[in-house]
Amino acid sequence: LTVAAAADLNYALKELAAQYQKKTGTAVTLSFGSSGNLFSQIQNGAPYDLFFSADEDYPKRLAAAGLVEGGLPRTYAVGHLVLWVRNGVSVGRSHQVVDILLQPSIKRIAIANPQTAPYGRAAMSALEHLGLKDKLASKLVFGENVSQAAQFAQSGNAQAGLIPLSLALAPSMKDAGSYWELPADSYPELRQGVVIISASKHKKAAQAFLDYVTSAEGSAVLRQYGFRVPDGR
Amino acid sequence: MGIVGLEMNSLPEAGRDGLRVEVRKTVSSGPESSFALDVHFLAPAGFTILFGASGAGKTTLLDCIAGLQVPGQGEIAIGGTTLFNAASGVNVLPNRRAVGYLMQSLALFPHMTVRQNVEYGLDALNGDERKAHSREIMESFNILPLAERRPAETSGGERQRIALARALVTRPRVLLLDEPLTALDAITKARIVDDLRAWNRKHQIPVLYVTHQREEVFALGENVIVMDAGRVVAQGSPHDALGRPTSESVAQLAGFENIFACTIAARHPDQGTMTCRVAGCELELEVPLTRLDESRPLRIGIRAGDILVASSVPQGLSARNVLPGAITSLQQHDAKVIAKVDCGAEFEVHITPGARRSLQLEPGAKVWLVIKTYSCQVLQ
Amino acid sequence: MGIVGLEMNSLPEAGRDGLRVEVRKTVSSGPESSFALDVHFLAPAGFTILFGASGAGKTTLLDCIAGLQVPGQGEIAIGGTTLFNAASGVNVLPNRRAVGYLMQSLALFPHMTVRQNVEYGLDALNGDERKAHSREIMESFNILPLAERRPAETSGGERQRIALARALVTRPRVLLLDEPLTALDAITKARIVDDLRAWNRKHQIPVLYVTHQREEVFALGENVIVMDAGRVVAQGSPHDALGRPTSESVAQLAGFENIFACTIAARHPDQGTMTCRVAGCELELEVPLTRLDESRPLRIGIRAGDILVASSVPQGLSARNVLPGAITSLQQHDAKVIAKVDCGAEFEVHITPGARRSLQLEPGAKVWLVIKTYSCQVLQ
Amino acid sequence: MILPALTLTLRLAVVVSALLLVIGLPLAYWLAFSRWRWKFLCEAIVSLPIVLPPTVLGFYVLVAIGPLSPFGRWYQALTGHGLAFTFEGLVVGSVLYSLPFAVQPMAASFAALDRKLLDASALLGASRWRTFWRIVLPLGLPGVLTGIVLSFAHTLGEFGVVLMIGGNIPGATQTVSILIYDQVQALDYVTANRTALLLLSFCFVLLAILYGLRRRSAWGLWDWK
Amino acid sequence: MILPALTLTLRLAVVVSALLLVIGLPLAYWLAFSRWRWKFLCEAIVSLPIVLPPTVLGFYVLVAIGPLSPFGRWYQALTGHGLAFTFEGLVVGSVLYSLPFAVQPMAASFAALDRKLLDASALLGASRWRTFWRIVLPLGLPGVLTGIVLSFAHTLGEFGVVLMIGGNIPGATQTVSILIYDQVQALDYVTANRTALLLLSFCFVLLAILYGLRRRSAWGLWDWK
Ligand SMILES: Nc1ncnc2c1ncn2[C@@H]1O[C@H](COP(=O)(O)OP(=O)(O)OP(=O)(O)O)[C@@H](O)[C@H]1O
Ligand SMILES: Nc1ncnc2c1ncn2[C@@H]1O[C@H](COP(=O)(O)OP(=O)(O)OP(=O)(O)O)[C@@H](O)[C@H]1O
Ligand SMILES: [Mg+2]
Ligand SMILES: [Mg+2]
């Protein structure tokens, strides 16, 4: 079973795959990449069975192109956006996200590229919602994806980063700084969709793994790695 | 001793026909400097010496025959095989011409050993035969001890012998040798000249041999082509081409130490001679009769070695020219004394040290120069 | 005409002292082939000819003097300046040695024009002076018409003259010329030899001049060093070094056409001669007396040109050696007749065509060879 | 995880270098010796692959060999499977992308050869083919070696093209460079450092042996200078 | 959007090529002519930057120039701002990554020169410096040109290092290659194709002019062969 997954699922899916294999004996091969690349590859016949995207857009487009099994993508998780600041950078006393972002010690803020990455778009709309877009525009640097944005912050070259909670919980990030969740109403919900590829030869197995991920057991793991599980289920 | 290794019965028999060359070509580098080659000759099997001043076009000619440069016009053929024909567009590739060429720049392969260089042209043979042949020729040219060295580890003369061995060991239909022996001492040179003659007797192919040295011309030459400024100015046996030169450039190349501008003063058809006056002085010379126009200036060439010196007026001699003069300088070079004698015009005369001693010649001494009529060459 | 362009007052005066060389060096390529150089000499200002067979080590020696190869031991100095000393570790870089070196391989810069090549060593001068100097020397060497060409567009002899001009135009303290005139015709060579002599008179620096050709030795040499197998085997004036050779290799180089292995039969101290028996036949020769041990074999060298031929028994001559024999062959080379005469041992004799005619010499004719005692050289 | 990636990477680099040798040598020879007047346009074209960002080049290659293109369909019909996401696909992409690094140094060193030596070879009866093997190649070896080292190392390190065409499938198309990239992306620096160090030391040893051998002229091809 | 990216890219490529010329020539000279016994280790090291994936190399450079490293702190203290996300930072990363492409062809062509010519130059009194400028450089020009073309083109196309160090700031650190990459990522193929075509044609014209000039030997440096 070959699973294509967005980079922010790295830790969560690895754990899920391990548990699943222990439980059922089915080996799951994980192939991580940016959702955009994975999308292009699936369009051009990549041999994936499942595609865990970081948004709902790419799966929808695949569905529109008739490349997926069943009509619409399933939402398996919802992402959180957090403000991550490196240890040692002065954040002031207020601990309000807006105040921290306006601290003079914060000269660079890393976000993912809003043109291509869902978390980048979310970060931009959050900044706009908080009324900081114009003030901070000149401080923004853009990573190719959320990982790179996290690296900018983690290496100290950017003092702050707007990154997914899932990355802020990664071991190397957890120890190096602290994070503050952004208000959930400041950006559109980051629903992450999953589809089964119609060209797959293992559709049953794919469905089984998908069911496992969305089961209560799977959801617990996802929650543990910083995702919310969508409402209504 | 010869080069026995060259009888390769396994290779096809080399052609026994002559080389026919008719080449017109202009090389130029920029509008103001260009050189035109325009030659036409036939070289039979055997040595043909290409003799000519530096820059006369000898290398350019050989390059054309080898196919490294393409003539503008003309034809080149060995026996019945056309190598090049401008009119019909034939231009055989160099590697199919079966031409052995020792280039002036040698062009040894720097990354191969001497043996590998020599054996390069022998890949049609099997390993043992190749070894045997290359060994024999290297022995003959005294380069066997260097066999496992690279060209950079040999001396200039050794390199020349390696290149010569490399060119000879294949079985060419024509051999082109561009100044092959310049970097060799007299003994080595004499031995290799002997080898070349033996080789030539055996193979009977046309060999074009470029040299600047008179000795090599006479040692090897059956046939000489004298070139000047891109043209053939004389051709024939060494004696004909160099001994009776009819143009001044050949005369200089052939070593006429005395050349005088003259005008014809009188003709004596009955005696087969004419009297010429040397320009700029009162001197008159009796020279062989020619058909030249009276009014045209001509040049007379006399070899320094053909002039006799006498310390008193010579009596009862058949020679017509007896010129009184005074010795201006004497220089001994090797076993030869070079005397300059002023008889109105200055003559260079070569005599032996013995003659100098017995005649007690000293600068300032009064002498008579005796010049046979037939020692005076009329140059056009 | 000479090379007037070379008096550059703007450059420091070149040293007028001699070159002292003491070099030991071994070059090898692999265990079984190596060459050892071991020379020691002093070259005063003026021409010193390096004469020696191909592979004698001449180029290696010049490379050491120029600093391109590093000797194992020894010292090299010009006047008071040490260029190299193995003991004290001095090793001046080539570009600080002020050595002009015409390499055997020429090493012209292929990407520069002839003018740029010649001017390369003149960057201390300003543009106009540089132009003037290079122009003058190029004119003198007859390469001015080629000034704007690249070396690949010139002939072999032209390239040699370009390299010579390039080496001469700087103001070196020592000049090293490795076979500079090999690719030139006789006339061009004579003119350049004249120029070199004029240049030398003006500059008075040591010039080491490598050549294989006897004529050049006698034309230029004040001092000759004869090398063989990496060692100096003779040194002195051309006449001393080549005319009275004391080793067989020099004798061969110097052109002793007749060399015989002999044993001493009798000594005549009163007459200053001794009688030697030629090995393998009954022939006896009177030669100058030496201190050599009776029992040791020795070699006698006789120049072919020093032997007289008589067609009847010569009478009343001072010469002690009169050997009857028969002509086995006659060959005319140029103005020289080479006769082989069998007198028990075979002698090579050179005579003039005139002598041949007047004596009516033909193969088979009975003749007497007349050899002066002092024409016989005893070689160790 | 690292072992299959390493073997895959090595296999890829070796195959790509070998192919580049096969394609690059004749191309370089042609570029060096042809007298065609429009040759300079070809020289320019040969350099173009590296002008594009690797992922973009990879994307175009992906489209060109994917099932949407005629070539992709033809290949699929022929072999029963697509070229993308297979080892062969990686090879195609890498060869294309590393071509300039291989061809250009080779062509430069061929063009610098002394033509007289080629003439001499021809005059001794050697065909172009023989002249190439015995003269051009050995004497141009420094450039050929440079081209091979550059393209080998570049294939080891490049991941943009490979990621796009191969799709990061462990064991099938995941090379070491993608693995390191993945690990860095996952912010797993400890593992990434270890893998990077491994790759670097491996290459260093390989190159040091190569250059060391060349220096010791164990090939006998190097010491004529 | 494309115009500032294009000018930035060109500026970067020109600056990087120029710097590589300055750094690469002496390094190549040393690699070609030094007789140091451990030289071969340096030769191996010079090739190493391209063995790492560009983003990973970029990440290490990012860490090295960031405030956590002594160098980063020193630079910050000196200039008042960090090296990351600036043009200078891009230059540092690109120079490092393109170094092998510049140095290796240069070194190969220097090493192939006829030593006799260098000797002749020294004997005419020329210093090493003068010999380098008048003999080594003109005769090694094919290799130098190859090195410069490769590193120039590679700097145009490379985006991994640049993206990592530069942070994709439009007008400041967003190069054309990042722009194309972004457009492909955004699935905006029409724009991406247009931009890629623009970059390709631009480079093609540039290279064609360069090679055409060389062929016509307008420099007078090429036609001695
Ligand atoms: N590209 C060129 N442009 C102009 N002239 C040239 C070119 N190449 C050669 N020449 C001239 O052609 C003439 C003939 O050259 P070639 O090499 O055939 O002479 P050569 O007889 O072999 O002389 P040498 O005895 O010096 O070797 C020379 O004067 C040379 O300068
Ligand atoms: N690397 C080497 N290994 C072994 N022998 C060498 C090496 N280099 C040169 N030799 C030998 O050293 C000897 C002297 O060479 P050198 O070039 O000094 O001779 P030369 O006197 O200049 O001869 P020529 O007149 O032929 O130029 C030659 O016999 C040559 O073969
Ligand atoms: Mg010539
Ligand atoms: Mg020599």
Please give the structural blueprint.
The complex is a heteropentamer, with 1 copy of chain A (233 residues), 2 copies of chain B (380 residues) and 2 copies of chain D (225 residues).
Chain A: E1 2-6, H1 10-24, E2 29-33, H2 35-43, E3 50-52, H3 57-64, E4 74-79, E5 81-86, H4 97-102, E6 109-112, H5 118-129, H6 133-136, E7 140-143, H7 146-154, E8 160-164, H8 165-168, H9 171-174, E9 177-181, E10 190-196, H10 203-214, H11 216-224, E11 227-228
Parallel strand pairs in A: 1-2, 1-3, 6-7, 6-8
Antiparallel strand pairs in A: 3-10, 4-10, 4-11, 5-8, 5-9
Helix pairs in contact in A: 1-11
Chain B: E1 19-28, E2 34-43, E3 46-52, H1 58-66, E4 73-78, E5 81-85, E6 90-91, E7 99-102, H2 114-119, H3 127-140, H4 156-169, E8 174-178, H5 186-203, E9 206-211, H6 214-220, E10 223-228, E11 231-236, H7 238-243, H8 248-254, E12 258-268, E13 273-278, E14 284-288, E15 298-302, E16 308-310, E17 321-333, E18 336-342, E19 346-351, H9 353-359, E20 366-371, E21 377-379
Chain D: H1 2-33, H2 39-47, H3 54-65, H4 70-79, H5 87-111, H6 115-123, H7 128-139, H8 141-157, H9 160-166, H10 176-185, H11 189-215
Describe the structure.
The complex is a heteropentamer, with 1 copy of chain A (233 residues), 2 copies of chain B (380 residues) and 2 copies of chain D (225 residues). Chain A is an alpha/beta fold. Chain A is built from 11 helices and 11 strands. In chain A, α1 runs antiparallel to α11. Chain A is elongated and about 55 Å long. Chain A starts with a strand and ends in a 5-residue tail after the last strand. Chain B folds into 2 domains: 238 residues, P-loop containing nucleotide triphosphate hydrolases (Rossmann fold); 124 residues, OB fold (Dihydrolipoamide Acetyltransferase, E2P), CATH 2.40.50. Helices cover 23% and strands 35% of the residues of chain B. Chain B is built from 9 helices and 21 strands. In chain B, the strands form 4 sheets. Chain B has a 6-stranded mixed sheet, sandwiched between helices. In chain B, strands 2-1-4-5-6 form a 5-stranded antiparallel sheet, with helices on one face. Chain B has a 5-stranded antiparallel sheet with strand order 14-13-12-15-21. In chain B, a hairpin with a 2-residue loop joins β4 and β5. Chain D has a single domain, classed as MetI-like fold (Orthogonal Bundle), CATH 1.10.3720. The radius of gyration of chain D is 20 Å and the shape is globular. The C terminus of chain D is likely disordered. Chains in contact: A-D, A-E, B-C, B-D, C-E, D-E. At the D-E interface, α2, α3, α5, α8 and α10 of D face α2, α3, α5, α8 and α10 of E. The structure holds adenosine-5'-triphosphate (2 copies) and magnesium ion (2 copies). The site of one magnesium ion (MG) has 4 residues of chain C, from α1.
